[in-house]
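Lab notebook page, bench 4
Experiment: in silico fold of construct C2
Operator: M.H.
Input chain length: 134 residues
Purpose: comparison with the prior construct
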Amino acid sequence: MNMFPTYFFATPYLTQALGFLYPAYKSFKALRSKEDEDDDIEMLGYWVSYAAFYMVETYLEMFIFWIPFYYEIKLFLLIWMVFPTSRKYAGGIVLYDMFVAPFFEKHEATMEDILTSLHYYDLFLTEDDLNPPV
C-alpha cells in the first residue's frame, strides 16, 4: 500500500497544527505562569517570527509551490522554532534577533508615520467608537 499520497496531502495540515495549535497552547500556559517571564519572551519571539515568516510565505506562494518537499522543510523549521533546547537556541528568538528585529529597527520611523496617519484618517476604532453614548 502506497502511503505517499496520504502523507503528502496531510503535511500542510500538520504544519498548520504545529504552527498554530501547539504554540497557542504554549502561549496560554506562558501567560498563566506569573513567576517565569522567559516563557513569555520565548512565545512572543515565536509569534513575531512566525508572523514575519507567514508574510514572506504569502507573497512567495506562487514560487513555493515549485519547491520540492516545501511543507516538510517548513515542518522542521516550525519544530525548531517551537521546541527549543534552551532559551539561547529557541528558533523563534534566533529568527527574531537575526531578521525581524533588525528589519523593524530599520523601518520603525516609517511604520510609526504610517500608523499615525491611519489614526489621523480614523481607520482604527477608538474606545469611544466601541462604546457610543446612549
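Observations: The chain has a mean pLDDT of 81. The chain is about 75% helix and 0% strand.
Next step: discuss at group meeting.
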